[in-house]
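The material for today's practical consists of a large collection of protein records. An example says more than a description, so a record of this kind follows:
***
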Amino acid sequence: MLALVSRARTDPSALDEVLAVLAVQSQLVQGARERNEFLERENNQLTHRLALLLEKLYGRSSEKIDQDQLLLFLKQQLAVETPADPPSLQVQNIDVTGQVSGLGKLTAHIHYSMTGDNALTLRMAFRRTPQANWKQLGQLLAAGDRFAGEVTAVKSSEPSDTHSPFEVDYEISQENFADWSRKALQLRMPLPALGIPEVEESADSVAKPLKLGSPLEIHVRARIELPATYAPRAPVPVSMSRDFASYRSNYSVRGSTVEAQRDIVFRQREIPQDLLADYSAFTRAARADEAQLVSVESSRAPASRTPANAKHDSRQ
């Protein structure tokens, strides 16, 4: 958010993005405030019911019952230890299905299915945002996952259906994704960033345990179809397993279609100090895999089909 604000100072076009983020954050804060008010009402009702119950059991008393004593009694009788982790397993499934046209334009369908804390956050955001503004939510979600292009047709499952995973779908299109005027080129697969936490540098040069939060699984699948005249070559797969996490990727080619999968599972809530070096090596290997490109070759490059004024994507 700070980066967006800084960019908006010099780039007026970034102001709309900042306002959209602020709107979502405001809605989340309002939702939390309403939740607190609801819990306070519930607490007052329980206190009142407890007072009636005590009066029924022990009769009326000329001594006024202290409110704090009632609350203490309630906590002692109904104390429930709040679990450190969510009651359901945190799982995020992301599927990308798309194709690249002969003019180099990428069009893709993105599907999210998730449970846990991130699902709860998105449920609140979609529930409190008018459907007419869902495109902004989809654009923010895409930007957070480092998808480039224009987002359209944003839809979600019923936010109040907490018994099922929360699902979000949208379409995305990106001009100049591929430069087919070249006979050989390298493409970055349109896959979401996994957001692997990094070890923080300490000012006193003393490494501290890295908190990862609740155990989490992220599963990414992608299927991208290229024009029939192009032959892609799959990147090298990666497989790693540690006590704290595991990472696995696999890539395959079927004709002119590239298929990719990446899976990361965080098993521990925290990386202890003595494992930070191993964890750093683990994250470097995973990020190197995320940066792998797909090599594509063609026996004939249809340069005439690419407009002369097309702008190439500088991120390739």
Remarks:
- Helices lie at 2-10, 15-58, 67-78, 117-128, 134-144, 276-290.
- The radius of gyration is 26 Å.
- Residues 2-78 form one domain.
